[in-house]
Amino acid sequence: MLAEIKGLNEECGIFGIWGHEEAATLTYYGLHSLQHRGQEGAGIVVGGNGTLQFHKGLGLVTEVFSRGELEKLTGMAAIGHVRYSTAGGGGYANVQPLLFRSQGGSLALAHNGNLVNADELRFRLEQQGSIFQTTSDTEVLAHLIKRSGEPILKERIKEALTHLRGAFAFLILTETEMYIALDPHGFRPLSLGRLGEAYVVASETCAFDVIGATYEREVEPGELIMINKQGIRSERFAPRVSRSICSMEYIYFARPDSNVDGINIHTARKNLGKQLAFEAPVEADVVTGVPDSSISVAIGYAEATGIPYELGLIKNRYVGRTFIQPSQALREQGVKMKLSPVRGVVAGKRVVMVDDSIVRGTTSKRIVRMLREAGATEVHVRISSPPITHPCFYGIDTSTKAELIAANHTIEEIRQLIEADSLAFLSQEGLLQAIGRSNDSKNCGQCLACFTGQYPTKIGGEHVGACVQTSWSEY
């Protein structure tokens, strides 16, 4: 959980499998393991037997597939999707995979990420006669594929992908083939695995573990993988550029039991905590983490400082996704429904509260107050990321600078606003050192745009280059 319970949300998780008679069921389990990446909607498209069948709906995976829908989805290939809306908003129509039928055959799309030039492409396509059925930027790719003049589908897909800018991990399923594509910068994680003779692909490796699949390798940035009855082939649709995998995957989004680009998330977060302890030590009696993503960080901080780690905050796992909040008083109650301080742990103690980020600051303030109400004598806040000072355009729902507290206040001002006794953020250098990605580039192959304002792609433009400094006037 983030310092802001509703502060940052990643767009989605994708899962695909080719060559297994239980494709739909395995996709269901894969999506269930990726549920943390999106709770708004879920869907599965199954193929491989000459036709594409699908079911999707709003809600959690277990809610969408609760009435025997899986038994009706027969085939040896499937792609699935769990969604949290950023680009295009919510609603049933935008729940993925998106399925398109035409005289030339059917095609299903599942997408993780966000296209920074989607509006521009959409305008051009509509000028040329395209009619869109959704407000999702994912649909842009389907129209580009359809309008391509290349003679075969593989080449149409490759041409269409070259028009896209931003973050995208795509799964494409037809009646006879599956395609896997990752954007040239590799903003989002995407892994390839095997389950017997079947091929599996997922946003995170934790999805492999739940179905007993074996990890093989990462999908390379700019790579297009094709799988059919003849086997698997790999080609490039874009030249290699410096990788810019999202730093928030390591800080918050990915599950602790996943490996992202060869690095275990739990280990990375423990290292973040140890580095944070080195940079911002404090005299205290107990260390606690805000569940769930900050637990690993808090353990690392405690190990490095020698201060005991305790469960000072408990997450209520039975709070529904939607909470009716008809008044300000009940909205204030929302945090208490999701988090509870353990009075016996924090009462009379100097507490180090470790969290992964501060977005707007409102929830951090409420958690600090809860700890004080439970008897904490001091509350020292430690954040395992640098201050978020710029919006993300690659699939995280922070779209304006005005909503980011660190973009408009100093660290001391933030400390006062959240009512903490002290506050410290991890440095950018400490972040890169702790995660430990081996890369010759100055950013270690990670996107740091939300901390620095240096975007790997030009926002809203056609040019893609190494970290492009973008001024606010351009937005």
TrEMBL record:
> Where does the chain bind Mg(2+)?
293, 355-356
Q: How is the cofactor bound?
A: Binds 1 [4Fe-4S] cluster per subunit. Binds 1 Mg(2+) ion per subunit.
What PROSITE patterns has UniProt attached to this entry?
A: GATASE_TYPE_2 (PS51278)
UniProt-listed Enzyme Commission number(s): 2.4.2.14
What keywords are assigned to this protein?
Answer: 4Fe-4S, Glutamine amidotransferase, Glycosyltransferase, Iron, Iron-sulfur, Magnesium, Metal-binding, Purine biosynthesis, Transferase
Parts forming coiled coils: none
Q: Which domain of life is it from?
A: Bacteria
Which residues participate directly in catalysis?
12
Q: Which cofactor does it need?
A: [4Fe-4S] cluster; Mg(2+)
Chain ranges of the Glutamine amidotransferase type-2 domain: 12-230
Task: Tell me which residues bind [4Fe-4S] cluster.
Answer: 246, 392, 447, 450
Is Mitochondrion among this UniProt entry's keywords?
no
Asked if the Swiss-Prot or TrEMBL record annotates the protein with the keyword Cell wall biogenesis/degradation, the reply is no
Q: Where is the signal peptide?
A: none
The record's GO molecular-function terms, alphabetically, read: 4 iron, 4 sulfur cluster binding; amidophosphoribosyltransferase activity; magnesium ion binding
Pfam families under this entry?
A: GATase_6, Pribosyltran
What GO biological process term is on the record, naming one?
Answer: 'de novo' IMP biosynthetic process
TM spans, by residue? none
Q: Tell me the pathway.
A: Purine metabolism; IMP biosynthesis via de novo pathway; N(1)-(5-phospho-D-ribosyl)glycinamide from 5-phospho-alpha-D-ribose 1-diphosphate: step 1/2
Question: Could you tell me what reaction this enzyme catalyses?
Answer: 5-phospho-beta-D-ribosylamine + L-glutamate + diphosphate = 5-phospho-alpha-D-ribose 1-diphosphate + L-glutamine + H2O
Q: What is this protein's function?
A: Catalyzes the formation of phosphoribosylamine from phosphoribosylpyrophosphate (PRPP) and glutamine.
As for family, the record states:
In the C-terminal section; belongs to the purine/pyrimidine phosphoribosyltransferase family.
Task: Please give the HAMAP family that the UniProt record associates with this protein.
Answer: PurF
What protein name is recorded for this chain? Amidophosphoribosyltransferase
Originating organism: Anoxybacillus gonensis
